[in-house]
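Sample A.
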Amino acid sequence: MTDALRIHWDDALTRYDFGQGHPMDPVRLRLTRDLVHALGIDALPGVRVVASPPAGDSTLRLVHEADYIAAVRRVAETGEPDPGRGLGTDDNWAFAAMHEASALIAGQSVAAAEEVWREGGHSVNFAGGLHHAHAGSASGFCVYNDAALAVARLLELGAERVAYVDVDVHHGDGVERAFWNDPRVLTISLHEHPRTLFPQTGWPEENGGPDAQGFAANVALPPGTGDAGWLRAFHAVVPPLLRAFDPQVIVSQHGADTHVEDPLAHLAVTVDAQRAVALAVAELAAELTGDRWVALGGGGYAVADVVPRTWAHLTAIAAGHPVDPQTPTPEDWRAEVTRLTRALAPRRMTDGGTAEYQDFDAGYDPADRLDQAVRATRKAVFPHHGILP
C-alpha cells in the first residue's frame, strides 16, 4: 500500500449548501476535515493537502450537456426553479453558489484522477461522490457528477480499463448511466434494494448496454442488512469482478449512508464495516492497479456521529496508515461537534463492530434474502467475464 496521498480540500467546498434544514448539511465536510487534522492524518509522511480549481465548462461537458450547465448557472443567478432539469426541486434546492460550488467539487475529483493517472498513488476527495447527477439533470442532492467526470477524464488521458466501485446506500445510477455502453468502464454498485429506496434503479438484471453486457454490476441488498451481510456481499462480488476486469485505476465512492443511524435509508452497517471495505478497496488497488486509487465521499446524513469518522478512516487508509478503531476521538474535535451541531460527539473511532463475515464461496443459503441478492448479481454478470457464478 502506498504512502503517497493527496487530500483534496478547499474551505470553499462547504459552499455546496442547499440551505438550512436540507439533509446534506455541509457541516459534515467541515467536521471530517477537522477530524482528519485532529488525528494528524494530514501530517503523515507523503500526505499533501491540495486545492484544485473548479472544473471549467469543457471539462464538465465530458459528462454534462452544455444546456444543462447553462441552466445550473441560470437557476443559481435567478433562484427560479427548473424542475425539468431537477433544479430548484424538493431534493435539489436552488442556492446562489450552485454552479461555483458544484464545479469546485468536480474540479477536485478530476484533478485527483489526473494525479493518480500521471503520478500514481492515492487521492481523496471526501466532498465528492455526487453520483446521481445525469447528463442533463440534477438528482438526489447531486448537481454535477464529479465521480463520472473523474472516470471520463481517465479515459480521455488514455486509460483503457477503469473500475468504479460504489458502496453508497443508494444506487450509483448517474455513473452507471454515463458509461452504460462502454466496456472500458466496469461499474459496481452495492445499495439498498430499489423497491425500498431512491432512485428505484439498480436491479441485478441491469448489467450494461448492448456493447457492454456485464460491465454494470448491481447488488440490491435487503433492508436491514448489517455488517456481516454487507461485507459478505461485497467480497462475493467486488474482488472477483475486479480481478477478472484487471483495471488500471480504481475510482471508489464511499457514501456513509449505509450506517444504521442514517436517517434516509434502512441498512444497519457500522463504521467498522465501512472501514473494512475501505481497507479492502485499498488492497485491491495495490494488487491490481499499481496502487492507482481515487477515493470519494458521497451520501451520509448522520453528519456528526458517522460521516466524519467514516471518511477520516478512509483518508487514513488511503494514506497507508489506518487509524486503530479503538482510538479516542480528540477532545477538541468533540467540543467542536457539540458547538456546531448541539450533539454529543462519538468518543471513539469505532462502533464496536467486528467486521466479521462468512465467505460466500464457502456455501450459500438459497432461502436467505441476502444470498439471493448476491446470487442474482453473480448470475447476471459473472459469465460475461468468464467467471462461474
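Sample B.
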Amino acid sequence: MNDEFAEFHDQLRTLARELLEKAGPDPVPWATITSAGWPGLAAPVEFDGAGATFAEVAVLLGEVGRAAAGTALPNVLALSVPALVDVAADALRDKVLRETIAGLVLPVLTLDAGSDADPAFVLESTSDGPRLCGNAGFVLDATAADLLLVPVRESSGNWLLVAVAPDTRGLSITAVPLVDATRSAATVIADQAAVRAVWRFRGSDVPAGLRARAAVAIACDSLGSADAMLAATVDYVRVREQFGRPVGSFQAVKHACADLLVQVTVARQLVDAGVRAIAEGAADATVAAAKAKAYTTGVAVRVAGAAMQLHGGYGYTWDSGVHVHLKRATLNRALFGTPATHRKALAARYA
C-alpha cells in the first residue's frame, strides 16, 4: 500500500509465512502466535503493542489465508483488539488489553458472521446487577475464547461492549459443525448471564464499522488463499507431463492460468483499497469493504475450483491440499455477507 513500509511488510510477510508453514495442517498454538507479538500488532504502544495500522494487520491476515491456518488471530486482530481500543478506557479495560497483547487472554468478539442484522443482545438491569440476554447464531472462534466481547445497543441508540466469561452461568456456547476443518464456530446464547465489565463505545455506527473490518479481513484471507492456489497450480502444470510434454505447455491450460491471474490481480487491487479505507478511517470504508468482500471471496472459490481441475486426479486427493483451500474459500464467501448481499448494498447506492 505504501512504498515507505514495503520493506517492513515484506519482512513481516516472510516471517509469518515461515512460522505458519511450520504448523502444517494442525491448528497454530496460541503460544506460538503470542511469542511472535502478533496480537498486539495494531495495539497502542502504551499497552506494549506495536502501534501498527490495519495495513500491517492485513499482511498477517493474507498469510493466514495463504497457509489456511487454524487460528483465532484474525478475530483478535480485526475485531477484538480494535473494539477494546475503541471503548472508553478504565482500569479493567486496560488490564484486558494488556493481557490480550501478552497472550494471557484470548478475547473473541461475538459478531454473528452469518447474519447482516445488528447484534441481538440486550443488557437488562436487575437487583443483582446487569444481566446479558440474547443470541448470535454463528460466532467464529467462540469455543476458543477466554473472554467474550459482546456489542450491545442501549435504548438511547448508543453502543456498549460487554465482557462475559465463557463459563458464566446462563451463557451457552454450542459448537457448529463445519466442513471447513481449519475454522471453528459456535452459537452463543445468553440468558440472564452475569457480566464482567461494561464499556461504552466512543463511536455511533458501531456494527457497520465492525462488519466493514470483518469483511476486509475475510477478503484478505481469501486473497491469500487464492494466491497460494494459483502459485501451486502453476508450479504443478510446469512439471506434470502428458503426451511427453508438461501440461502447462498446452494452450488451454495457459489460458486458464492467465485468466486466474487476471482475477487475482483485480482482487488484490480491491483488497488494497479496502485495507487503505479501514486504515485511514475513510468515510466510504463500508463501500470499499463491500467491493473487496464481494469480488475477492468469489475469486477465491473459482481459483480453488480451477486448481482442483488443473491438478487432475491428484487434485482430488487429500495429499494435494487443494480441498482445504476450497472448503475454506467456500466458507469465506458466506461469512459477513455473501457476494450477492454486498452487491445488492452497492447497487442500492445508485437507486
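B remarks: The chain has a mean pLDDT of 94. DSSP finds ten helices and ten strands in the chain.
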